[in-house]
Amino acid sequence: MKHCREVLRRTSAGAALLVGVRGLALWLLLGPSAAGHGGAYRGPGDFVPSGASAGASGGTSGTGSTSNGGTVAPSGPAGQPTGPSTPVPQPSISSGAASSAGPDGSRWQTWWGFNKDAFLSLRARVGSGGLLAGSDVFFLSRREPTQDELQPTPQEIHDKVKPALRAALSVERQNDVQSGLIVALAKLGDRPGETEVAGWIAPFLAHPNQELAETTAVALGILGNERELDFLRAILDGDAEALRARGVGLEGPPSERTRAFAAFGLGLVGHRSSGVPRERAVEALVAWMGRESARAGQAEIPVACITALGLIALPSDPLAAVAQNVGSPLRVTSIEEQLAWLAWTLERRDLSPRVRAHVPVAMARLMRVESAASTAARSLAVERIAVRLSRELDEAAEVRLGCVIALGLVGKAGEGALDVRVRERLRHVHETLRDVQAAHFALIALAQVSAQPGSGARPLAALEEGKDGTRAFLLERLSSGASSTRCYAALALGVLERGAAAARAGQSAEVLAALRKALEDARAPDEVGAFALALGLAQDSASIASLRKQFEAASDVEARGHVAVALGLVGDRASIRRIQEIVVTSKYRPDLLRNAALALGLLGDKEIVPQLVQMLRNSTGLAARAAIASALGLIGDRRTLEPLLAMLGDRESCTDLSRAFAAVALGMCCDKELLPWNAKLAADSNYRSSTSTLYSPDTGTGILDIL
User: Fold this and answer.
1) Is there a smaller number of Cβ atoms within 10 Å at the N or the C end of the chain?
2) More confident site: 66 or 483
3) How many CB atoms lie within 10 A of CB 329?
């Protein structure tokens, strides 16, 4: 659904979770994250992005403070009605956390909320079998169902679910339900050659409710139909005449927010396209950045354009005359020209730092496309990013942070000079940069590059360097850093060992033992959760006993939920019954319910699904509904379709919010993509420089707040 706003309020007595459901959504992209315009939940509710009110965190690399509370009142865009909206599941703040530094984005839980989807890959596991006690397939065949038997079939989706959603949208008048239906239909998509969904949702672009209008714009991108590129460009350009020709009766040009959502939509469609449609998407985005309005100080549309460009890698043309096109905003026809144009944009001082902060990540995302860019173009781009971290260069803190994140995406573990320089620069950043979050992110980035095989005789040289290698560096931070640094170091080690296993390089017994010991000794909730997830990322089955012990001992609901996810990641099926009990009894603890359901999904358990459906029907709390619907969307299978469809159509005994969340869950269950559609935007994002249309934890109105 749409902006399902979840606002975390903190009082002296503890934390109170309020969810203002504005455009009903699920905090789907959750890690802990929240939902908006369709629902998503990503980070602690007390986090204020740079440019909003919080600036770069001060302090040394070895210290960090935990976000704490002030009271945050539910709010929405000026003049915007605030009806029920879907909770944006943002990671809850540990009740024991305290800080005098005020809100910031340095908590590791925020990073996990944005990046967890790729590590969990939950929907890919839905059909892997599981405890299907009571299922006909189980009793008749005495075998676990296959993936094909569990997942909704294309025929079920297009012949049963889509018509029901369409019928509901045609008669629905409640904004929250409409928002959820629009996003759900876009997730289901069209059959090859069809364009019917766009025709159903396009009229809402002229809706007087701003949330519905902007939800429609991004839904056209979620739909992913390249035939809608011209429509999306017309929205971005504010071409009222072209929109009227399409049957959208706007009196004037679309709002700035709607146009920003259209820019994101262009990136999503371009990402799914190839050939000429992909080039047209890039052309539209680059052309807009050449306008005078891109330099007028506003950041919403420029950030959307830059972020979208990072999703659309054009074909390589090593012979392209890159130098001649660096300053030309209208001729970008290869990935080499894309990188050169973005590098030029990175250095544009007529753009605000808040905009330029997203450029390095866009460049890095393009370079991650295998064999996309020539070696020379990649090397030049990496150098242009790395130089922004020079102490001699007076660069804005948010731009530096973007460069740190980007280096983690493009560096590798080999012994080539460029990759060695990247690893050295990341270590240097951690040790010297007076920005807590950049120092912490440098640890994660170092782990990412050190587990990515490079070229040459020693493709994983970073893992073979003994006391001078990445493992030794991170272990030292785990053992001697401040608490916040130890948490990030643990997660970095988990990422590193997971990558080492994927690269078949072998995991380090020393690292795994150190992480187990850290978990066993941990008492602070933040450390318990981080160390547990680190072991889960490394898929260390030897840690099961320690994880079970912490799961039972943890009194902090956030920490307990993260331990549950860790048990799911290490495959502890013996804990299924105990985790099921937590789900059933956590109706009023939505974060714990959500994470416990995630754990069951990771373990292949579907037995809890019927209970979740009943809980959704009977629940009265907004946060609880969001968590339950999100759980159903993530771990549900084809058996959830009938009860959810029945709930959607039951106007007499089901509240509007329950029906809206049923639509959200249906969209998630039947999504054409295995990962949440906005996971590609959330992972490795520079969320400290967010705009309200990208990520807005206080209102849940950003694209990363949509389920």
Assistant:
1) C
2) 483
3) 18
CA distance linking residue 620 with residue 628, whole number of Å: 11
Asked if residue 48 lies in contact with residue 54, where contact means CB atoms within 8 angstroms, the answer is: yes
Q: How many CB atoms lie within 10 A of CB 187?
A: 28
Q: Which are the contacts of 259, defined by CB distance < 8 A and separation ≥ 6?
A: 217, 235, 236, 237, 238, 253, 301
Handedness of CA 393, 395, 400, 402 (dihedral sign): negative
Whether residue 699 contacts residue 692, with contact meaning beta carbons closer than 8 Å, is answered with yes
Does residue 459 contact residue 440 with C-beta atoms inside 8 Å? no
- DSSP reduced 3-state for 420: helix
CB-side neighbour CA atoms (13 Å) of 413: 23
Enter the pTM of the model.
0.85
Which tokens go with 188?
A: 């289901």
Tokens standing for residue 63: 């210290």
Contact 194, 158 (CB under 8 A): no
Arithmetic mean of pLDDT over the chain: 81
The distance in angstroms from the start CA to the end CA of the chain is: 6
Largest interatomic CA distance in the chain: 71
Question: Which residues have CB under 8 Å from 512's CB, separation 6+?
Answer: 497, 535, 538, 540, 542, 543
* Distance (Å, whole) CA 42 – CA 27: 7
Closest CA to 316 of 407, 380, 377: 377
Distance CA 40, CA 200 (A): 23
* Cα dihedral sign, 144-148-152-156: negative
* Cα angle 461, 62, 438; round to 5: 70
